[in-house]
Amino acid sequence: AEAGVVVLYEGSTALGTVTAAAAGAWSITAASLSDGAHTLTATMTDAAGNTSAASTALTVTIDTSASSPTGLALVASSNSGSTADTLTNVTVPVITGSVAEAGVVVLYEGSTALGTVTAAAAGAWSITAASLSDGAHTLTATVTDATGNTSAASTALTVTIDTGASAPSNLALTTASNSGSTTDTLTSVTTPVITGSVAEAGVVVLYEGSTALGTVTAAAA
């Protein structure tokens, strides 16, 4: 309400001083504040040497960093095979993770953004990724908090997309199941053993027309 010297405090610590030449507005650049909440007050000493009581407090919260998202995972509904791995035929998989505070989460492959979601509070988030091609994809995420701090990238999650399987090849009647000449496939064995090759691990089903005659798991190519 009058000219004087204004001092800004945190508790009993002076953070800055300014001389208000007349009644009206003043401003002080505070001394550097650490991360966290700071309760600030001000006093004014007038030309007669009277010092006011402390002002009503202002609480300012400093936040200079954001924690990286954690726990990136492929959701079970996007994992077409075994949930023990991240191999899937879903080309737009849903990725989940957690954040320590509210913010905007961005999912990346390298420097390419694949999706964004706003996490309204600390906890879980999920993003449906942009369409991924066949092959391995190394995914990370960042979060930008309410004060504009962007975290470092999360620990990576590798998701492998596989939308096609090569047909088995080289089907043959085993010698032990071929009762006649091995130059043909004429045999008296009614439960013959058939062999073949696959390009990758998987479940092989032997058919006659649409009728399944047997199944085996090929543990590797």
- Report strand order across the widest sheet: 6-12-11-8-9
Count of helical regions: 0
Order of helices and strands: EEEEEEEEEEEEEEEE
CA-atom Rg in angstroms: 34 Å
Mean of the pLDDT scores? 95
DSSP strand content = over 45%
Explain what you see:
There is one protein chain. By secondary structure, this protein is an all-beta fold. Helices cover 0% and strands 48% of the residues. The strands form five sheets. Strands 6-12-11-8-9 form a five-stranded mixed sheet, with no helix packed on it. It is rod-shaped and about 125 Å long. The relative contact order is 0.12. The mean pLDDT is 95.
Describe the structure concisely.
Helices cover 0% and strands 48% of the residues. It has no helices and 16 strands.
Describe the protein's topology:
Elements lengths: L3 E7 L2 E8 L15 E11 L11 E5 L7 E5 L12 E2 L5 E6 L3 E7 L2 E8 L3 E6 L6 E11 L11 E5 L7 E5 L20 E4 L4 E7 L2 E8 L3
Parallel strand pairs: 6-12
Antiparallel strand pairs: 1-2, 1-3, 3-4, 5-7, 7-10, 8-9, 8-11, 11-12, 13-14, 15-16
What brief labels describe this structure?
221 residues, mainly beta, 4-stranded antiparallel β-sheet, 5-stranded mixed β-sheet
